[in-house]
Amino acid sequence: MRKLLALLATTVCMFSYCGMNAFGQQASYYYFVGATSTKTTGLIKGGLAGMNNLCRSQFNKETHMCSADEFFSSAPTAANNKVVVWIQPALHGCVYNGSAIMCQEGGSSSFVPATNAALACQNGGNPWTSNSATNNGTSAAFTTATGFQLDTSTACNESHPVACCAPAD
């Protein structure tokens, strides 16, 4: 009976992200380590790989551009006012509402259209390849009144540092 309960608990934990991967091993978690000192628009050579390279060149080879979920689960609670950093959009909890697929975006409790996955300054479907003022990217903006807030309407021609995340030790 104990083995059955342990198996059930492990299965439930794996499907509800209790810290194990599909093989029952401790899952890796990523946490915010800092923002790049270099700023960029939504257009960078290599797209998402270019954003990751900015992080790797400043921090270490294991860092990458934070997803919204990674950033908001580990972002600092205090920062200089008016800090804005680029983050990779992350959608989860998607449901069909009868007319469209709606998802929750990391860092927000409200549902947004699944098309918001495109909010990564896309050009031709490739993320972080546009610096057009009419395209939008995902960022996190800090103010002393609200702390960090998700912003999916940051114009791609704006220049901001990249939020970088690394695996937990």
Specify the biggest β-sheet.
3 strands, antiparallel
Order of helices and strands: HEHEHEEEEEEE
Number of strands: 9
- The end-to-end distance, rounded to whole angstroms, is 35 Å
Q: Kindly state the mean pLDDT as a whole number?
A: 77
Number of domains: 1
Helix/strand/pairing category:
alpha+beta
Rg over CA atoms, rounded to whole Å, is 18 Å
Low-confidence stretches: 1-27
Proportion of residues in helical segments:
10-25%
Strand content: 25-35%
Explain the overall architecture:
- The protein has 169 residues and is α+β, with helices and mostly antiparallel strands.
- It has one domain (31-167).
- It has helices at residues 2-15, 48-58, 68-74, and strands at 30-35, 64-65, 83-86, 91-96, 101-105, 111-113, 136-143, 147-155, 163-167.
- The strands form 3 sheets. A 3-stranded antiparallel beta sheet has the order 1-9-2.
- β5 and β6 (111-113) form a beta hairpin.
- It is globular, with a radius of gyration of 18 Å.
- Mean pLDDT is 77; it is low at 1-27.
SSE topology sketch:
Elements: H1 2-15, E1 30-35, H2 48-58, E2 64-65, H3 68-74, E3 83-86, E4 91-96, E5 101-105, E6 111-113, E7 136-143, E8 147-155, E9 163-167
Antiparallel strand pairs: 1-9, 2-9, 3-7, 4-5, 5-6, 7-8
